[in-house]
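Predict the 3D structure for this chain.
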Amino acid sequence: MTWRLLAWSGIAVAALVPIIGGIWLFTLPAASAFRVPPPIATQEHDAMVAELKPPKRSRPLIVMLGINDMTETTDYLMPYGILKRADVADVVTLATGPGPVALFPVLKVEPDATIAAFDTAHPDGADYVIVPAMSRDDDPAVMQWIRQQAEKGAVIVAVCAGAKVLASTGLLDGRRATTHWFYLKNWRSKHPAIQYVADRRIVVDRGVATTTGISASMPMSLTLIEAIAGRDKAEAVAREIGLPGWDARHDSNAFKFTRPFALTALRNTLAFWNREQLGLALAPGVDEVSLALVADSWSRTYRSHAVTFAATDDVVTTRNGLRVYPQVVAPDWSADRLLPAVGTAPPAQALDRALAGIETRYGRDTADFVAMQLEYPRADVVQ
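Done. Predicted structure below.
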């Protein structure tokens, strides 16, 4: 009798799972409509730029902070590549410990120094510290070092879910801030003293800046260039990277956990037998921003994972001096699983082309799914 009861109980539970899952999916909102948000008032923009002015040096020192075991790829590389391209500041990559930084979801890089070595060389601290998303939000070394840099007068800039790391330090308490849409609810619940600001890609408050999703690294970097070197310089760099217009405007309501998003994640996850490893050739002089965006996008489909390859295991130096390790040593890659070379297209175009390639290979739903993760307004805009 007991075993029959257990068997029927198991069948009942198995039957309830899809029913409950279906009800949950039905409660999710339909696809978001992207609307053009109103322009940012000149006074608001000018005030934000003024708050981001270099606090110490005429040629500022900017630090990209990472932990060795998993730092977000594009959060770490996009500001680095754009700021190095601008050549308005000294930009260095740091890690909490010696050795390479493993980036998530793809790539591995050799940082310039450890935080300990940086402290020895620059006891007065950095002008700006850029904090990307990390595999953990409460790394003791990271939290202590960020607090110390803030005490030394550095402007702290958290990119995307790097705002979770920054919140753990307490520096966001009582300040206005934002973060990636996916983490917003838990972030606000865990840190109720933060004053969340909607409809802004960039929020600056008393020496601390935060951004929305990953793609906000572009306008954030350009705003920082404007604060350091003026509007003309920022516009020149923006044209180079393929982003002629930018500001802090954002439609926060367009980014949320929707039914299409959940269904695409579920469908692509269940297609585990058809998951692909796609090769991306790692060539000397490649643009860091384009490399990060292409590799990151293709690794977020839940259908594929991008890996960099080269003929040898030697470190490859990028356009602006970053040292990247190939993940696979191979002279070539199977043509049907070879991603197009990053090439020389402006980074913003590289992202659009990657999303177009994803749509061709896996469908519009998957391309939109990736764009939503990047908090990138790719979908048709409603005026």
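DSSP finds 13 helices and 19 strands in the chain.
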